[in-house]
Structure formats: structure tokens, C-alpha cells
Write a structure and sequence with these properties.
CATH class of the largest domain: Alpha Beta
CATH topology of the largest domain: Rossmann fold
Order of helices and strands: EHEEHEHEHEHEEHEHEHEHEHEHHH
Number of domains: 2
CATH architecture of the largest domain: 3-Layer(aba) Sandwich
CATH superfamily of the largest domain: Glycogen Phosphorylase B
Strand content: 15-25%
Length: 364
Amino acid sequence: MITILRLASYPTYEESGRGLHCYEISKTTQTKVIYLTWFRKKCNPFKIPKNVRLYVRKFYTYENPKKSNFVKRIFFNIHRLFRVFTFSLNGIYLLFKHRVDIVHIHSPMFIIVSLLGCLFRKKNYITFHGEDFFKIKNKIWYKILSKCFDNVFSISPRYLETLKKIHNKEIIQVYNGIDIEVYQNFQQKRKKQIVAVANFKYQKGLKFLVKGFNHFISNNPKFDNYKLVVAGRGILFDEINLMVKKMNLSKNIFLVGQKNRDELIKLYNESEIFILSSIWEGFAKVLIEAMACGCKVISTNVDSAPLVLEDWGYMIDHSDFEAISSSIKKIIEDDGYQFDKQKNVLNKFTWRNIRKHYHSVIFN
């Protein structure tokens, strides 16, 4: 049996989206998977598949203090490099201990493990999930070292051409998936509520979302009973919370913090509309989660959104708060919203299909 070493985060019930892609593609009887990961805090990990052997090691697990002083940023980066190096050494140890056939990393920061794998003639793969692309796209060192990869996968179509130039080879488009047995529409009465699920950082466009919802409430008094619920945490949480208070929106906008998977499914099913306000994305799992739970959906026209929403969905320009406002009004009044198309398109994004796609490449 082929043995694959994978380095990636691992999903927990508290943060079910982190590492879910790697976790799901590892669930197969065709391979033995050595899974090296870390946890950011005390948590409840997902059940370990029978073919997976999970190793947990220390790593750096807090936000980059970009707005801190120079000295703090220097110490942060030194600490991060040390943790990346020591974590990668664990990967190299596991590579030899388990006589691994394939190395599959899910972030370019673990490239040292792939280089050792290449040196010992192991097959090497990397999957780009989104933000990691920006860390290497202009790096000469990465372009030189990237020759160690046999194949490169990208979850976002946005990066395909640039990644092709960097790696000098065709890049394989893959998707995120949905477990339709877990994410379901409970067919219950919905609240006059819009939900967003996001990490509170710049790329998620939450400031534009708050402005857009404020514009919607201010210009549509007949809909002033609508609420916006935003689930998630992150470095901008306090700043956006203060923004909500200054705009006197505390009765309409609720920042409810991090939610576990069951809580998110309940929140989706309570809400009439889901909105994705991101400026850029890899492949937004939350978009297909909300669709599976029966929400009407609005999304900025980013990366994989057109693949999901095709020609019938509500797509708007990147974080345009006026477009957000008008789209909310339009979708509320859309009595003929195409739920059937929304349900049918989800069949394309099952984890079973995504695993088959990976296997067709890895076992070719």
C-alpha cells in the first residue's frame, strides 16, 4: 500500500473548516496517510480515519502583529521561522520512519520536507488553498525550489496562470467540498436574518459588509427588522465591533464570535440569506455550506464563486458596499429564487468526487 505524508492543519469541532480539505482527501482505503498537524488551542479533533496515523506537534498559532512595532514584528518572524523549521524536521523524521512514498504539503512553508523527499526520489505534491499563494508569488527562492514538485494543485482558479509560470508546468484545479449528509436544510421557518461567516481580517471585506448593510437599512425602512449576524474571530474583531457601535448598528448587527460546526449549521438554517463579502478567496467552503443548508446566497465575484453560482447567482463587484445593499434588497424580494439550481450544483462539490480527482493524478 502506498504511504503518503501530509503536512496540514486538522479540523476540529470548534474550527471545522481548518484543514478540512486535507482531512477529507485523506479518507480512503487506497493509501496509508501519515498526517502531521498542530492545534491552536485545547480542542476536540475530528475522528481519525482508519487509514490515517495522526501526529501532533507544536507550531506557531497566533496572528501576525502587522500593526505592532518593528521589534515585536522581528521577534514574531524569528519565532515563526524557528517553529516552521522544527515542525518541518518532524516531517522529515516521519518521512524516513514510515518509508513514505509520497509527500503532499498544504503550505509552501513546509517545502524543506518536499526537498528532502525529492532528494530521496519520493513523489511530491503541493496544494495551494488561497492566502499562501501571495506569500510566494514574487519569491525567487520559491521559484527555484519549486522544481521539486511533480504536480501542483490549486483550489482557486484565480492563481492558475501565475502558478503555471512559477512552476513551469500545468496546474491542476481542485475544489473544496461539502458533506451533504452533515450540512442539510432543516426546512424550518427562517428569521429575517443575513448571516456571514468569516475570519476577521482585511481580505474578508467585513468593513464593506458593515457599510453595505448600513446603507441597506438606512435606505429601506420597510426592511429595518432585518439583522446581520457575523460569526468568526480574528485580528480585526475589536475594530469592526467598534465600527458597528459608532454607526449605531448594535440593534441590527451582531458579532457572535467563533462557532463550531453544529452551531454554524443551526445558524445557516435560521437565516434567510448568506453573504460572502471577500476581496479574495481560495474556495469559500462557507458558500457551499450555506447553499446546502438552504440559504439564498450573495457573493462578491471572487475566485471560485462563479464556479459555484454559475449564471443564476447573485454576484457583485469586490466589496462594493452599494452593490451589497442593492443585492440584499433584490434577493429579499426575489420570490422565484432558484433553489433547485442551487441544490443541483452541489453534486459537483462532493468530497467523493474531489478524492477521485486527486487519485486520478496521484496514481496515474
